[in-house]
Amino acid sequence: MSRDEIAPPHRSLWLESSLRDELDAPVLAGRSCVDVAIVGGGYVGLWTALRIKELEPDCRVAVLERDICGGGASGRNGGFVLSWWPKYPSLVKAFGADEALGLVRASEDAIDSIGSFCDRNGIDAHFTQAGWLWTATSAAQENSWETVVAKAETLSPGTFARLDPGEVAKRAGSSAHRAGVLERRAATVQPAALVRGMRRIALDRGVRIFEHTKVERFSRAHPLIVETSSGSIAASAIVLATNAWAIGVPELSRAIAVISSDIVATAPMPDRLAEIGWTGGECITDSKMMVCYYRTTRDGRIAFGKGGWGLVYGDRIGPSLDRDRERAALVTRELRRYYPMLADVPVTHDWCGAIDRSTDGLPVIGTIGPSAAVHFGIGWSGNGVGPSVVGGKILASLALGRKDEWSSCGLVNRRTGAFPPEPIRYLGAHVVRKAVLAKEEAEMDGRVPSPVAVRLARLAPAGLEDK
Ligand SMILES: Cc1cc2nc3c(=O)[nH]c(=O)nc-3n(C[C@H](O)[C@H](O)[C@H](O)COP(=O)(O)OP(=O)(O)OC[C@H]3O[C@@H](n4cnc5c(N)ncnc54)[C@H](O)[C@@H]3O)c2cc1C
């Protein structure tokens, strides 16, 4: 089949409204040669390409993307631009207090830098820095932020605002929110507008982009060659920025598990948002393990998502990771539960995408193969919009062979846990997910969850999305 005859995958509302008249980039054909070949045209691949061009404008960089840039998670996500403060305890465990704080600060700077990148380059990605409301929607969730917020108050006063419960409910527009804190620096974007804008700037700066170009194989030893069904590229360094699809790379297959995150969006209803009082632009999450995340849009919709409902067996990332109506109905139920007063507002869009969950929720970045020139950056675990800027800096330094603060930071080549092989991973994840759902449903209803569910839910990192 020719490229024109292949139906595009189901797209997000964001991508649907961001795809302008621009032509898709060409398919790779024949043989060529670059300095750095990047596989994957999402935020990670494109930030890496842009950073390389900033450091070494003459470097020849190619991005190879199986779909179109932004066809993956970067054009499908919730658009929450968050710091790594919620991951501070995991960062300390992995790297110690100093490095953890350095990485948190880098992730905070990343939020601001997305805003200034958009300003400088005329990208209207709806960047809105109105903060993140980290809330509790059941008694069991209350104070789940306490460790992080207390630490931030010592190390970086003013990061979080403790709001009284009435203020949380008022800002969120629903009394389903019983308590919460606001991380002031967090922002939202229209995610696909951002990734498509990055694509445009990358092209302007001389990055060669190939779309509808699936990399079938690549070598690990010199000479490094990236091969597709219609061509090949020789490179001095390769960067794998393939998010969940990295599970198909044998060296990386145990480092991540693939789960879905599912989003529904309502029809525009700015008047109704004004009625309920959610007009401040804050993005919101509850504190469930299978987190609900929601935000408003410029045209007055609610986009409401939930992570972790869909589990993928091994590397079988199929169409149910683009759209799944059954899961969308469950997400809609969650939306209606938190905003019952909007029950009459129709849901007009639903979509989903793949999450590359690592064992500890932190990214997994490093180098594989004897050439020491094949680098990868995966494991964003549902928190990659802001952190991918940091990932791009690290991967660019690795690809250029620079010895600097980024290539030597703790995230690079760290020892990480491994998920069990299939079928144990899939079966185990099913059992744990069921337990988490049972536990969290009981808590939402004010019931005491069964001890078995509580015990099994403790194994949850093996499959659930982080904030
Ligand atoms: C529904 C959803 C909601 C989310 N919400 C948030 C949020 O609100 N905030 C947040 O911080 N994070 C969120 N995330 C996570 C965030 O979107 C990701 O962490 C981030 O986009 C990762 O960027 P990436 O470039 O690694 O991945 P992607 O954007 O997925 O890019 C990887 C690309 O690689 C391509 N590819 C794969 N295999 C090949 C191959 N063999 N050859 C060529 N190309 C290949 C894919 O087509 C894809 O375009 C969400 C994710 C999803 C799915």
Written overview of the protein:
This protein has 467 residues and is an alpha/beta fold. It contains twelve helices and 20 strands. The chain has helices at 13-18, 43-55, 88-95, 97-120, 146-155, 165-172, 191-204, 270-276, 325-338, 387-399, 424-444, 451-457, and strands at residues 30-33, 36-39, 61-64, 80-81, 132-136, 160-162, 179-183, 187-188, 208-210, 215-218, 224-228, 231-235, 237-240, 256-266, 283-285, 292-296, 302-311, 347-358, 364-368, 374-378. The protein has an eight-stranded mixed beta sheet, with helices on both faces. The chain has a six-stranded mixed beta sheet with strand order 9-3-2-13-20-19, covered by helices on one side. α2 (43-55) links the parallel β2 and β3 (61-64). The radius of gyration is 21 Å and the shape is globular. The two termini are 40 Å apart. The structure holds flavin-adenine dinucleotide. Flavin-adenine dinucleotide binds at residues 39-45, 64-67, 71-74, 76-80, 82, 214-215, 241-243, 245, 261, 263, 293, 305, 352-355, 380, 382-386, 388.
